[in-house]
Amino acid sequence: MLSSFWKQNKRIKNAGISCLLLVLFSITGCSIKQPRQAAIASAHPLATQAGFEILHQGGNVFDAAVAVSAALAVVEPSGSGLGGGGFWLLHRESDELDIMIDGREKAPLAAHKDMFLDASGEAKKQLSLNGALAAGIPGMPAGLVHLSEKYGKLPLATSLQPAIRYAEQGFKIDTRHQKLLGMRSAVLNQHPETAAIFLDKGRVPEKGSILRQTDLVKTLKIIAAQGKAGFYAGLIADKLVIAVQQGGGIWTLDDLHHYQIVERTPVTGSYQGIKVTSAALPSSGGIVLLEALNILETVDLATMDSITRKHMIVEAMRHAYHDRALYLGDADFIDVPVERLINKQYAYGLATTLRTDQALPSEYLTGHTQAKQGGRNTTHFSIIDNEGNRVAATLSINFPFGAGLVAEGTGVVLNNEMDDFVSAKDSGNGYGLVGGDANAIAPEKRMLSSMTPTFLEDSERIAVLGTPGGSRIISMVLLATLDFAAGYSPESWVKVKRFHHQYIPDQILYEKAGLTSEEINGLQALGHQLKQYYNYGNMQAVQLNKATDSLSAASDHRGEGLASVQRINE
Ligand code: DON
Predict the structure, then answer these.
(1) How far is CA 287 from the centre of its chain?
(2) Residue nearest to atom 10 of ligand 1 (CA)
(3) Known active-site residue 378
């Protein structure tokens, strides 16, 4: 909740105003408008610029979010796109509305529980990860149209302009794009349409080469002109269904006609007086984040040495990810005890198992299953203006370049989110995440996600943050939240050294240099298994300091994004 003082005085226009004058004017009821400003952080400089371009044209933060989402679909095709989905968490200051647009992919109508099993009941991992069968029905185009039409001020066609321009004129590919292409080039090469767009005679193109996407231009223009029907019916829908069926997939036109976004009430809770607003099911993000925070609220992290502190955080992650595996799935299909899982009393119960001198083996928790693990792509952006309007959006096609398949003539890269379902008992998904019937495949069901677009708010600051990173998304947002609680800035949240525990496998993953050798030894002595991992995540964060009416923004140094604060021309 914003302080009434701040509310009365926001948008007061007078650059050289003093606090004294502000107090005087608020008492006398006069109002002076503050220049309009906004902060945007995204995974690509051109996407951040697209957001500002739309704000400068008179758009609000929701129009800017449409522009950034669409631009990312063009300039970061490894991470998200029209063939994928995601969650847009919105706050509109005029009526204090908090809402999440759920544009998550859905299983096709012909999908069934055992569709990725072989005759002996083993998971056929390749099928849920690569090619047509791996693709869920996309939610991104419907999400963009809804966001623009219901919350924006500008026409959809205007907000899509920067993306259309980037696709038409092309842009220089960066090292990150090259790296992600390299990881998936074997799969991309199996699909001539995909290879023709992204590869150079089957190889990763040189850094700085220009990527133009002429089919994607046409698709974006059709959506700009026709809205939702431009993608889910007509020419594009026909091409998508033909490509998927030719690739051995099961989409029909009915699937596309049926797709609907859902507006959901975000998950809310608190940590040490900070209001936490985060993703609702079908993302596990908000619930797992709050459960871990509630457990950690019962201990005094600030007075602990760094080994004990990290141990406690790991134990909280273990419990919260365990409940993810046990209970979470699409609440439109199954009953999920959400209120219990985010209840502070429930966390007190779990916290009684926490010991400072010993790790709790995951196998001692109920419903234990063994599983393997693997991992990695998606995108996040954060926007806030100095009125407090904000968007946290995490968008995905799952693995880099999704299923590796571009539907011929559309430029649309299809997702491989079907892998986020549990396709076989005792078998982890691409991120090693396990689960049960709650997240089993069913027609039109949404697969459980870990995407965690989040708002944090205390008496002085509002933070907007999130990151890609598969199962590790939630633990990254948790670590950033603890850093926010300790009083640090966006620059610090995105820099936090990362470590992660997801219940199964029973091990702490940590970034290179994420833990000191003393911490590694100390955690091992408590009974933890540890595994060093590559530097992961690409957090994008913005903040409004209500007390000083100032904005700040930070983009993860592990990526190649851009965070910027600008005054908006009016
Ligand atoms: O929805 C999910 O949880 C995953 N599909 C997100 C994938 C992801 O973040 C990959 N990024 N590195």
Answers:
(1) 14
(2) 377
(3) yes
The tens digit of pLDDT for each residue in 40-89 reads 999 999 999 999 999 999 999 999 999 999 999 999 999 999 999 999 99
Residue 33: predicted pLDDT: 59
User: What does the block give as tokens for 503?
Assistant: 């219940």
CA-538 nearest atom, ligand 1: 12
Q: At 515, is the secondary structure helix, strand, or coil?
A: coil
If you take atom 2 of ligand 1, which residue's CA is the nearest one?
449
Tokens at 366, concatenated: 């109920």
Nearest to 211 by CA among 199, 220, 201: 199
Which residues surround ligand 1 with Cβ inside 6 Å?
Answer: 376-378, 396, 398, 417, 420, 449-451, 468-470, 473
- The one catalytic residue in 158, 219, 277, 378 is 378
Contact (Cβ atoms closer than 8 angstroms) between residue 229 and residue 149: no
Q: What is the pTM of this model?
A: 0.94
Average pLDDT, integer, range 461-465: 98
Residue to mutate, 431, 477, 534, ligand 1, most ligand atoms under 8 Å from C-beta: 431
Q: Where in the chain is the domain with CATH 1.10.246.130?
A: 267-374+468-539
Looking at 3.40.190.10, 1.10.246.130, 3.40.50.300, 3.90.180.10, the CATH number of the domain 267-374+468-539 comes to 1.10.246.130
Q: What are 517-560's pLDDT values in tens digits?
A: 999 999 999 999 999 999 999 999 999 999 999 999 999 999 99
Residues 402, 406, 412, 418: is their CA dihedral positive or negative? negative
pLDDT of residue 376: 52
